[in-house]
Structures are given as C-alpha cells and as structure tokens.
Design a protein that fits this description.
By secondary structure, the chain is α/β, with parallel strands linked by helices. It is 27% helix and 23% strand. It has an eight-stranded parallel beta sheet. A five-stranded antiparallel beta sheet has the order 3-2-5-6-9. The protein has a four-stranded antiparallel beta sheet with strand order 1-8-7-4, with no helix packed on it.
C-alpha cells in the first residue's frame, strides 16, 4: 500500500463508505465505533467478497472506491481508482485521532465534493464524471421479468415453468427467465438436467405465448462434477503450483474458474451463447462472473480484469445486439459499460437474516443494505437490479421488501410461484411491475 492523503475529521462524527468488489459484497457507510462487515470464512471471501483482499483489522477498505464524510462540515472526499474499469486497487482508511489516513495499492484520484446529498450525492457526481469520461450512453430501459429462482431454487422443473406461464395471464411480465436447475452441471450449459425434457422446447413455448425468453448461466464457473472439468482440464485458471484456482464451493462441489483466454474455452463460450440465440433467448443473467476476474495463470498473459472485460465482450457479441444482459456476482467497476443491468446486492431470501451471520449471503438485511448504498450507480453505470420481488405470505417482512424494491428497483422482477400469492401479493406484484422507474435514484 502507498500513502495517498490525510484528511482532518471529527472523530465522533466521521462516516466512511466502503464499496465492495462484486454484487454480493457488502457496501455501506460506517459511523465511529461501527466495525465494518467482514466475511465469515474463506469460502465466503472467495465467493462473495474478494478472494485476494484481506484488510487488516480495524481498517476500512473500499475496492476501487471509498468515500469519507469528515463530519466537521467539510467536503466529502471520494477516493477512487484513477482508471476504475481497468484497475481496482484496495483503498484503505484508518482513523488516527483527528485524521483519516488513506493508502491504496495503485494509483487513485481524490475528489472533494461540497454538493447536496452527502456521500450518495458525492458518489453520484463522481459516477457522472466517470460515465462522461468514458462516453457511455444512457442505459437501455429494462424489461420486466419473472424468475424461477426464489420459489423453486435448484429443484425447478419444466412443469413448474409451464404452470407459471399458464397463471401469468395479464401480469405485465416481458421476460420469463429460467434461473439455474435446467442444466446437467455447472459448466455444462447445453446439457439438460433430467427434469427438463427439452430446454429449447420450453423456450419455444415462452416465445410463442408472447413473452421473451431469459436464461441464467455462470459462464466462468466450472463445477468439479462437470463434463467440462473432466474433459478440458486445460481450460481452468491455475495457481502457479499447477492446481486449479478455487472459485469457491456451492452446489455440493468445488468450483473452478474457466480460462476465457484459452482459445478453445472462448470458442466454447461462443458456442453456448450462439446456441441460446438460436433458441430465441434474448435475456441473459450471467452470474458468479467474479470467477472471470480471479488471479491465476491463464493461457494469455493478461491481468485478471483485462481477461474479464474481454470475456464479457465475447458474450455480448455472441448473444446479439438486441439481447439484454444482466450481470450478477459481478465485479462492479470492471463491468461498467459492458452490461445493461447489474445486481447490486446479495440475494433476497424468505428469511431476513443470512446464514452464518455473513451479510453477503441471502437475506433481506444485506439485500437492502447494498440496494440503498449503491443507489448512485443506477441510471449512470447501468440499471440497478435490487433482486426480485418476493411477495408470498411466507416471506419475512414482505411489506418492507416490496417498499425497498419500489424505491430502489431499476430492473423489476417477480420470483414467486404465482399460485402461492394471496391478494396482497398479487396486487403488489402487479403494481411494482407496472410502475414507472425513475432515471436516477440519486440526483446529480
Ligand atoms: C442461482 C442463484 C440465483 C441468485 C444469484 C445466485 O455465496 N453463495 O453461496 C451464493 C449462492 C447462490 C447465490 C449467491 C451466492 O445466488 O444471486 O439470484 O441466480 O445464484 O444459483
């Protein structure tokens, strides 16, 4: 770490805002005495925080971006990567008496901002300047979706999706998105699970019923149990001792990272998404894509973020110019300019609190925390996805979740089995899918 600056603060009133690395990584502001959230264990750190990031105890860390409100009436300081989409340095802040001491692992810029709306306002104006300097167009408007995940999880069947299609009736759902469960294994995207007699047949029925077809993939994950891992060990990102780099653990197996710079692995990705295009799929949720930016040895000698951005361009090209692209489990700043919408938070869940107390894991607590803290990104970098509305009676604090989606939802999705909704649930779903979405949540 190199020293950056020292800022005079009021130690009883200072606020420090950490930006997390990927969609599920906690992002929020901390008041004096509040310890920042940290991962429960190494598997969580790799899969939901940042694999190589190990902040020292008592130190705040932003990944490529941190903001300090000194609490003495002085301007907010926004300290950010000098090249945010290509380089995401760790930026640390220590409070030492009446100073905030800032250090960073690569070149950063320091911006002072005395405008309205505190840290969120300052972050919004920083984001405006980034988007201007990159010459990015305004994000395309998002379709509304129905997603299978938060009712059926990995157990979804073709019959479940058909049953919901039959109940969708007049609900304003543009896209029906099958989320996990349709594929034989993580990495084997073109091989159907036994619960799907014909995946293209299902997408055909969705499209002929007048809606658009959407699919979930985790393009840079390779499950240890997959045919890809077995048949193409040369496609995995490796440690320098030759072992495969860990991309975490989920679906009861170890996860590895696909080396998208290997020409055959790149050709496989192109084949997967070109095939989906021939199936009529025009909405893609690409998930766990942090795996495309893990450190390790690749076929091409490029840094992880360069490999990641190149791989997103490859997918973008293969899905076609009109397809809508939603990132999830995604490094935030390196995705700017490459996706239409972005999950900005951990998953919603039927329960408010997450498993093992790790706030990056599914639960309303973490989903709301990030959805609020990343409001400044919406309308600038992309459309913010706060995660789907779930409105059935067994969702803890469902009214609060609906209120959050209404305030901070750019992308609007429903993810209940429609037969599970009572009158409140159905009315709320219809209302949230119909209401207009503001261009910005935080004004400039
Ligand atoms: C499909 C799901 C849904 C969901 C995504 C993502 O760290 N974890 O163990 C972890 C597991 C699942 C997960 C997020 C984190 O959910 O966010 O919307 O698409 O995958 O498997």
């Amino acid at each position: 770490m190199r020293p950056v600056t020292e800022i005079t603060i009021d130690p009883s009133r200072v606020l420090v805002h950490e930006q997390g690395w990927q969609s599920w990584s906690p992002s929020t502001s901390y008041a004096p005495g509040e310890a920042p959230h940290r991962p429960a264990n190494d598997v969580r750190r790799i899969g939901a925080w940042r694999a190589e990031s190990l902040p020292a105890p008592g130190v705040y860390r932003g990944e490529g971006l941190i903001a300090i409100d000194p609490g003495d009436g002085g301007p907010v300081h926004v300290i950010a990567s000098a090249d945010p989409v290509n380089s995401v340095p760790a930026i640390d802040v220590s409070i030492v008496e009446s100073k905030a001491v800032v250090s960073a692992s690569a070149e950063v810029t320091v911006r002072t901002d005395s405008g309205p709306d505190g840290i969120q306002g300052a972050l919004a104006r920083w984001a405006d300047s980034l988007v201007d300097s990159l010459g990015l167009p305004a994000p395309r408007p998002a379709p509304t979706i129905w997603c299978s995940w938060y009712q059926y999880f990995t157990k979804v069947t073709e019959a479940n999706v058909d049953a919901n299609l039959a109940l969708m009736g007049e609900l304003p759902v543009d896209v029906v998105q099958v989320d996990d469960g349709y594929q034989a294994e993580i990495g084997d995207w073109l091989v159907p699970s036994p619960d799907f007699s014909s995946v293209p047949g299902l997408f055909d029925r969705i499209v002929s019923g007048g809606r658009r077809a959407g699919i979930w993939t985790a393009p840079f994950l390779v499950g240890a149990k997959s045919a890809v891992a077995d048949q193409h060990p040369e496609w995995l990102v490796r440690n320098y001792d030759g072992s495969p780099v860990s991309a975490g653990h989920n679906w009861d197996q170890d996860l590895y990272a696909l080396d998208s710079t290997h020409p055959d692995a790149a050709a496989y990705l192109t084949e997967v998404y070109s095939t989906f295009r021939t199936w009529g799929i025009t909405f893609h949720k690409i998930d766990f894509i942090y795996a495309g930016a893990l450190f390790g040895r690749r076929h091409a000698e490029v840094d992880p973020i360069t490999a990641y951005r190149e791989a997103l361009r490859l997918i973008r090209n293969a899905i076609g110019p009109d397809a809508y692209l939603l990132g999830c489990g995604a490094p935030q700043l390196p995705s700017v300019g490459l996706v239409d919408a972005m999950r900005v938070s951990p998953d919603i869940a039927p329960t408010y609190l997450p498993p093992d107390g790790d706030i990056s894991m599914p639960g309303q607590w973490g989903a709301v925390l990030n959805g609020v803290s990343r409001a400044f990104q919406h309308g600038r970098f992309w459309v913010n996805d706060p995660d789907c509305l779930v409105a059935r009676p067994d969702i803890e604090r469902r009214e609060e979740w609906a209120e959050h989606v209404s305030r901070f939802g750019g992308l609007r999705g429903s993810s209940d089995g429609l037969d599970q909704l009572d009158t409140w649930g159905l009315d709320t779903t219809r209302r949230l899918l119909s209401e207009p979405v503001p261009r910005y949540f935080i004004p400039s």
